[in-house]
Amino acid sequence: MSADPYGPYQGFAVPPMPSAPPPAPPDGWRAVAVAVLNLSGLGLGYALLRRWVLAAVCWAATAVLLFVALPADADGVPGAALAVYVLLVLLAAVHGAFAGLRTRLTWPGRAPLALLLGVLLLAVPAFGTVWYDDAHDEAVQQALLDRLDHADHLVTTAGRHRFATARGDYRAALETYRDLAVDHSGSRAAGQVPDRMRTFYTTVAAAYGHKEYCDAVEPLKYLRTVPRTMPGKQLGTLAQWPDDRLAASLYACGSAGLAGGGTDWVTRFGDLLNTFPHSESAAKVVPAVDAAVKNAEKDVNGAQPCTAVAQLRDLNTRITDLSGTDAGTSDALTKSAGRADRSGDAGEYACGVDQYKDGDFSAAQKTLDQYVADNRSGRNRDRAKKIAIGAEVAQTLPAAGKKLPTTASGGSISVTVKNDSPDDVTVLYTGPVTGSFTLKGCGSCKSYALLDTLRTGFKPCSSGRNYPQRTLSLPVGTTYFVHKPHGGSTATPASDTARLRSGYIYTECAYTTSTLGSTS
Q1: Are 178 and 169 in contact (CB under 8 A)?
Q2: pLDDT of residue 511
Q3: Measuring CA to CA, which residue among 493, 519, 381 is closest to residue 428?
Q4: How many CB atoms lie within 10 A of CB 4?
Q5: Which residue, 121, 64, 70, is CA-closest to 88?
Q6: Which of 384, 402, 420 is the last residue of a domain?
Q7: Does residue 416 lie in a domain region?
Q8: Helices (H) and strands (E) in the chain, counts
Q9: Lower Cβ count inside 10 Å, N or C end of the chain?
């Protein structure tokens, strides 16, 4: 018989020891205290309940959040991470409340004291949140200042290049300034935008400051578009800053083109008159155009009259184009265009004479014929006709162009010109006297065969026949004749050089073979 483990106490049974302390009576204060302690995110509620695994989960979640959030940057905490963490804390608080309802705390023994501790510990996440918000705000400010610095760098870099090349950088910088001013208006960076815009304007318009007016036009036009996107309070007086400068640049660039013989001055002056019709610069356009016309008129009597005439023709065309741009100056510009046209017509005489003297007889004839047609009452019209005839003769007989024809007429020597040809013939002559006339074709005459002209004794305009003829009275000296077919004949002009002496009677005879010939 075995020994009784309980000694002499026979007949009594002792229950086994419990595996865990018996549940405590329900205590609402304790449940709230555990929940509040867990709300701090430190898992202290679980720690006081000796739920170490759950406490460790809370600690790990808080550590992960701190790892993600710190150091504070402009992007802040990812929304998903923050949402997950808040959900875990709320679950820990709810679960802790249920767990603490019937579980005694290891410390402190009284639930109200634990609740007070939990409330005090809530200051930790509250302080952390405030601190993080401040740190995040500062990070945002620094990020915005970095963007401002980047935009400043773009402007500085762009200022080293021509506007056409740098335009993209200017646009990018302006977009940044606008974003800071509009979307982050309360930031420190936004407060610096007005100063940056002044730098922006002066940098973009640097060509104007360097007096490179043609290069300044496009940048200044660009600056006039800035107020469309940038708030007015960020610009202030800068909104009108480019206007006077652009007007001055358009005038200066147009004036340079006008003086240099360029073609873009019409565009520049047109832009000026259309955009700033009442500006001081616009008021200078008509005087500048008038001065250009007057200078070209003076040059007609200079060393290169043909160049001056071409300039007057060009001025007439371009001023006419310009006169339609602004009603206020239209009449004055139309007047200038008319003056250039009239001066160009009058200058054709000087041009033709210059071409004649240079030996360009074809151009001289064309120019002077045009002068005669354009100037019905020009004071040089009669002589221009003579010089045009001389130029045409000189194209066949270059020696005839050694002297400039005059308006002299008459002489003591009789020269009869006959037409032994079935075609009308125009006779041109120049020398001491210059002129031209046309002889009707001889109705009973015919063209000679080439072999006939080669026979010994061949002589057209034989005696005894009545040919169309005309008798001239010419001075002593050398006279150059050219006979050319009149109308649509394809016969080749013929020529003759007659050295006239006193005491002789001369005859010129025109006839046709395969070409047109003459004898004296």
Answers
A1: no
A2: 81
A3: 493
A4: 10
A5: 64
A6: 402
A7: yes
A8: 19, 8
A9: N
Q: What pTM was computed for the model?
A: 0.69
Report whether pLDDT(514) > 80: no
Asked whether residue 386 falls in the same domain as residue 427, the answer is: no
pLDDT per residue as tens digits for the range 305-363: 999 999 999 999 999 989 876 667 888 999 999 999 999 999 999 999 999 999 999 99
User: What are the distances in angstroms from CA 416 to CA 208, 400, 412, 475, 506?
Assistant: 75, 20, 13, 14, 6
Provide the sign of the torsion angle of the four alpha carbons 460, 464, 465, 468, taken in this order.
Answer: positive
pLDDT of residue 519: 39
The length of the chain, given as a count of residues: 520
Give how many domains the chain has, as a whole number. 3
Distance CA 266, CA 317 (A): 10
- Note whether 439 and 468 are within 8 A (CB): yes
- Which sign, positive or negative, has the C-alpha torsion 284, 290, 293, 298? negative
How do residues 60-75 score in pLDDT, each as one tens digit? 777 776 666 666 555 5
Considering Cα of 376, then 380, then 386, then 390, what sign does the dihedral take? negative
Domain CATH code at residue 488: 2.60.40
